[in-house]
Amino acid sequence: MAFPFACNKCLLFLVVLLHASAAIAATALDNSIDLASLLAFKAASTSGGGGTVSDNIIAANWTTDVPSCTWVGVRCSWQYPPRVVSLNFSSFSLQGTISSHLSNLSFLSYLNLHNNSLFGTIPDALGRLPRLATLYLGQNLLSDPIPPSIFNISSLIYVSLALNNLSGSLPTQVLLPPIERISIASNFHTDHIPADLARCSTLQEIYLSENKLTGSVPSSLGNLSELVVLALGNNQFTEAIPTSIGNLTKLQYLYLAFNHLKGKIPKEMGNLVNLQVLHLHVNGIAGSIPISLCNASKMIVLEVSTNNLTGPVPATLGKSMPILQKLQMAENALSGGLDFIAYLANSKDLNILEVTTNQFEGVLPDAYGNLSMNLQYFLVSLNNISEKSLQDWGI
Ligand SMILES: *[C@@H]1O[C@H](CO)[C@@H](O)[C@H](O)[C@H]1NC(C)=O
Ligand SMILES: *[C@@H]1O[C@H](CO)[C@@H](O)[C@H](O)[C@H]1NC(C)=O
Ligand SMILES: *[C@@H]1O[C@H](CO)[C@@H](O)[C@H](O)[C@H]1NC(C)=O
Ligand SMILES: *[C@@H]1O[C@H](CO)[C@@H](O)[C@H](O)[C@H]1NC(C)=O
Ligand SMILES: *[C@@H]1O[C@H](CO)[C@@H](O)[C@H](O)[C@H]1NC(C)=O
Ligand SMILES: *[C@@H]1O[C@H](CO)[C@@H](O)[C@H](O)[C@H]1NC(C)=O
Ligand SMILES: *[C@@H]1O[C@H](CO)[C@@H](O)[C@H](O)[C@H]1NC(C)=O
Ligand SMILES: *[C@@H]1O[C@H](CO)[C@@H](O)[C@H](O)[C@H]1NC(C)=O
Ligand SMILES: *[C@@H]1O[C@H](CO)[C@@H](O)[C@H](O)[C@H]1NC(C)=O
Ligand SMILES: *[C@@H]1O[C@H](CO)[C@@H](O)[C@H](O)[C@H]1NC(C)=O
Ligand SMILES: *[C@@H]1O[C@H](CO)[C@@H](O)[C@H](O)[C@H]1NC(C)=O
Ligand SMILES: *[C@@H]1O[C@H](CO)[C@@H](O)[C@H](O)[C@H]1NC(C)=O
């Protein structure tokens, strides 16, 4: 009875042996593809501009007499055979282009080329990396449109292409990877926000600030229920803030400043109870500050200066924002009394209060003396506030 058992063991041993020898054969093959990819990357990314070879850490370190997995910036898997899984060349002074041969690193999941002087187009072939989860190409000199294939990588989670010279429209009609953070800020993109973006339901952070994007802030963004950061400032967006923004109840940071937005601050924004920073300054937003905004009890910065806001400031605004640090409402047409200032005594960390260039009138409430000890700027001039009142407070 012991014999068949022993024979099973023998078979198992044989199978293991066969696997091992197949793996050894594969090693040579797989490493040669990874090696060739890395060498092509080195050649392109150190080629400099105008035919010069740039002097950097890769050029000195990557010697072929040691395994490529020991090269600086390269990390391989522990599996057998080892494969390149991570490339981190952040701040390596690379000067050249990004080789399309990187697309042959089929186990690569992390690619960080942030803060170098890489120029030219982002290779379309990068879209063939089947396991890529993190792609950081920010702070380079990359130009031309983003190849749509990038957003076809089904494993992609974090993308930053910020601070480059990228231009053209943002990619449309792509698959929907499980992206959580996308930053394309500080480039030269034109045209509308693609409708596809609102179908990436896993998105938590969107940074598209400092481009030349036009059209409206799409109402469909209200579908992105996981969104924590929405930064669309410094573009050329027009129309009103969509009321669907009130659906983004996890939102903490909303940056829409420096656009051409019109319409009113939607009262639905009162649903954004987790909002900490609201930047709406330098737009053409009209109407009054909705009372519902008092729901944002976690607010730290409320900046609505340089708009066309009218009407009184909700008196209890300050009362409901105990950790408020900055309240900036200058250059609007806000009117009514300054009672709301009394309630700001509740905001112990308040350090900037700007109500300059509005149409407030009346007297400063006595409670002005109770405002935060941290207050550094309190600007009230160019309002219709009683001269006597201002003198009383030594302003
Ligand atoms: C290359 O860099 C690695 C990691 O920093 C280091 O261990 C190795 O000694 C370097 N090799 C050479 C030839 O400079
Ligand atoms: C990549 O390198 C940068 C700069 O050295 C470092 O801050 C970052 O943590 C590295 N990333 C990983 C995943 O090791
Ligand atoms: C960018 O890289 C350079 C070295 O090339 C370094 O001096 C600089 O501090 C880095 N900047 C950032 C923001 O990481
Ligand atoms: C590697 O990638 C490049 C460009 O994407 C391609 O032309 C080349 O055939 C690939 N090489 C291998 C060995 O797969
Ligand atoms: C990047 O764009 C800026 C501004 O348009 C331009 O001055 C610069 O020459 C561009 N650089 C490259 C490498 O394309
Ligand atoms: C995206 O992937 C799909 C399915 O694999 C393919 O049909 C399409 O051509 C790809 N698009 C791009 C821009 O790579
Ligand atoms: C997204 O929102 C729009 C309305 O703005 C709606 O028509 C559309 O069906 C929504 N899409 C999804 C996938 O929920
Ligand atoms: C926002 O939520 C409401 C229900 O709370 C729903 O009817 C509406 O379709 C949502 N809008 C978007 C754009 O998701
Ligand atoms: C504010 O409204 C006035 C007219 O009521 C208009 O002339 C002005 O351009 C508007 N300002 C902005 C920033 O839209
Ligand atoms: C926000 O405030 C409005 C009016 O002040 C109130 O009706 C609404 O229930 C509040 N919403 C939440 C989520 O607290
Ligand atoms: C200022 O604060 C003190 C202590 O909390 C309080 O007794 C006083 O009534 C307040 N003054 C005004 C004018 O609100
Ligand atoms: C300023 O207030 C005075 C008295 O309260 C009023 O007569 C005057 O019309 C106001 N001026 C402006 C520009 O609102």
From TrEMBL:
InterPro entries: Leu-rich_rpt (IPR001611), Leu-rich_rpt_typical-subtyp (IPR003591), LRR_dom_sf (IPR032675), LRR_N_plant-typ (IPR013210), LRR_R13L4/SHOC2-like (IPR055414), PGIP (IPR051848). Transmembrane segments: none annotated. Residues 34-77 form the Leucine-rich repeat-containing N-terminal plant-type domain. It is found in: Cell envelope; Membrane. Residues 1-25 form the signal peptide. The keyword Glycosyltransferase does not apply. It is a single-pass membrane protein. It comes from the Eukaryota. Keywords: Kinase, Leucine-rich repeat, Membrane, Receptor, Repeat, Signal, Transferase, Transmembrane, Transmembrane helix. GO terms for cellular component: membrane. Residues 244-363 form the Disease resistance R13L4/SHOC-2-like LRR domain. One of its GO terms (molecular function) is kinase activity. Belongs to the polygalacturonase-inhibiting protein family. This is LRR receptor-like serine/threonine-protein kinase.
